[in-house]
């Protein structure tokens, strides 16, 4: 069995009330780069492999067609482009990598390929690119769309987007740069190539006007959970993000991914899954449970509703008093929103024909929005037991991406200071080669 990798998900470290929970920074409020630099140094020392930033460019406004709830309670906003923060964090660290998210639904591949090439240079080869197919109308409206792109087309666009990026990253051969001081020749023009791409969504001449970066291309990450999303991730991802709401669901995702990887001629053993989970860790079980209660007390019903509607792209304020889960899923699909997440999980667990009340739906939604449905709570010993069992049961490839619903930075400090030493004591962590490594060497060796 190979050892597990650990990443920290910093996407929402400053939202949903975490900034006010005891143990949070005082006097350093988002987006103070010094807070992130301190956390990056702690993660680097502690053996974390990746610091990950998800993204969204719109303020949630799906619930009741208004952004007021999100603004009032700080639900998934504010969100900044974290590329400058990553650049700063890289200057005070040596090993930890950085994952950055951009939407293939809205962005242009030439811009993204150029930016990630630059960041790969700045970080000495420690960049991962999480490419997403966007399902949120609040984001779409900021890029000139009045409705969401159809689900299948979003993934077609993603696949073409990544194909263009990969061609651009390799349009200047690794040995093209000469820098010959005697002849003054900077590069060999026979090793710099246009890509002349003309596709359904993009026309890009190329080549990329950049020096090849340490990794040539960043580690490519994708998190599609639908059959079409898994098919897309199998076509290009070096690493997959998976959602750990149940062991059966995780095993199903692993199995479907393996099938798609094999069908596309790729080695299924070489592509790991980082399972997303929330962890609340205490020195004792009692301390962990007290921290969990503090977190749950920070959520209001409106925060839950805003979060659920935004993540699915569907306004759940329109639900009747009682409805069939299959009908809700079909309505979401018809709206070009996302049928995965809470609704997909409920359909799997309860069945399409299950009649559910509005009250029960939001009760389940509370668990999904707060993360209780995939939250591990306990001592480092208890959580290490869970991670080892889950890792073995899902193929022993990849590891976990841990988010903390607790305060920033103390929630992450518990992972680094309590959990990782326990996993290392057991020999459960992936071995790290001595000296500087690119992120690809760390995660995909």
UniProtKB/TrEMBL annotation:
Lineage: Bacteria, Bacillati, Actinomycetota, Actinomycetes, Propionibacteriales
Protein's name according to its UniProt entry: NtaA/DmoA family FMN-dependent monooxygenase
Gene3D superfamilies with a match to the protein in the record: Luciferase-like domain (3.20.20.30)
Keywords: Flavoprotein, FMN, Monooxygenase, Oxidoreductase
Family: Belongs to the NtaA/SnaA/DszA monooxygenase family.
UniProt source species: Aeromicrobium yanjiei
Signal peptide positions (record): none
Highest taxon of source: Bacteria
Enzyme class: oxidoreductase
Keyword Flavoprotein (UniProt): yes
Pfam entry (one): Bac_luciferase
Domain Luciferase-like stretches: 31-395
Classification via PANTHER family: ALKANESULFONATE MONOOXYGENASE-RELATED, C2H2 FINGER DOMAIN TRANSCRIPTION FACTOR (EUROFUNG)-RELATED
EC number: 1.14.-.-
Cross-referenced InterPro entries: Diverse_substr_monoxygenases (IPR051260), Luciferase-like_dom (IPR011251), Luciferase-like_sf (IPR036661), NTA_MOA (IPR016215)
Binding site for FMN: 55, 101, 151, 155, 226
A single GO molecular function term of this UniProt record: monooxygenase activity
SUPFAM superfamilies linked to this entry: Bacterial luciferase-like
């Amino acid at each position: 069995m190979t050892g597990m990798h650990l990443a920290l998900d910093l996407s929402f470290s400053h939202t949903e009330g975490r900034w006010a929970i005891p143990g949070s920074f005082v006097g350093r409020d988002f987006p103070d780069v010094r807070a992130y630099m301190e956390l990056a140094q702690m993660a680097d020392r502690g053996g974390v492999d990746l610091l990950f930033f998800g993204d969204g460019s719109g303020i949630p406004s799906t619930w009741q067609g208004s952004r007021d709830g999100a603004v009032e309670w700080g639900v998934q906003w504010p969100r900044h482009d974290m590329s400058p923060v990553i650049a700063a964090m890289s200057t005070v660290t040596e090993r930890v990598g950085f994952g950055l998210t951009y939407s293939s639904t809205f962005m242009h591949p030439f811009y993204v390929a150029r930016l990630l090439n630059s960041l790969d240079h700045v970080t000495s080869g420690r960049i991962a690119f999480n490419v997403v197919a966007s399902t949120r109308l609040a984001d779409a409206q900021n890029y000139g769309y009045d409705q969401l792109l159809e689900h299948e087309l979003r993934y077609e666009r993603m696949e073409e987007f990544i194909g263009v990026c990969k061609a651009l990253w390799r349009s200047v051969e690794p040995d093209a740069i000469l820098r010959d001081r005697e002849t003054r020749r900077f590069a060999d023009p026979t090793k710099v190539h246009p890509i002349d791409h003309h596709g359904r969504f993009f026309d890009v001449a190329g080549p990329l006007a950049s020096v090849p970066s340490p990794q040539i291309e960043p580690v490519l990450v994708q998190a599609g959970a639908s059959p079409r999303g898994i098919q897309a991730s199998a076509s290009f991802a070096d690493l997959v993000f998976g959602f750990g709401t149940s062991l059966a669901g995780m095993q199903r995702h692993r199995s479907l991914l393996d099938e798609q990887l094999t069908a596309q001629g790729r080695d299924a053993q070489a592509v790991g899954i980082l399972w997303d989970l929330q962890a609340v860790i205490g020195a004792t079980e009692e301390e962990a449970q007290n921290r969990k209660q503090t977190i749950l007390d920070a959520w209001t019903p409106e925060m839950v509703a805003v979060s659920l509607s935004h993540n699915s792209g569907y306004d759940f304020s329109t639900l009747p008093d009682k409805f069939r889960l299959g009908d809700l899923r079909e309505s979401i699909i018809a709206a070009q929103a996302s049928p995965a997440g809470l609704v997909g999980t409920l359909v799997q667990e309860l069945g399409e024909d299950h009649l559910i009340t509005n009250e029960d739906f939001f009760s389940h939604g509370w668990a999904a929005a707060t993360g209780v449905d995939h939250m591990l709570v306990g001592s480092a010993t208890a959580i290490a037991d869970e991670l080892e069992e889950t890792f073995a049961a899902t193929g022993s490839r990849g590891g976990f991406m841990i988010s903390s619903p607790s305060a920033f930075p103390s929630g992450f400090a518990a992972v680094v200071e309590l959990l990782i030493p326990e996993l290392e004591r057991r020999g459960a962590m992936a071995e790290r080669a001595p000296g500087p490594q690119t992120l690809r060497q760390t995660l995909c060796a």
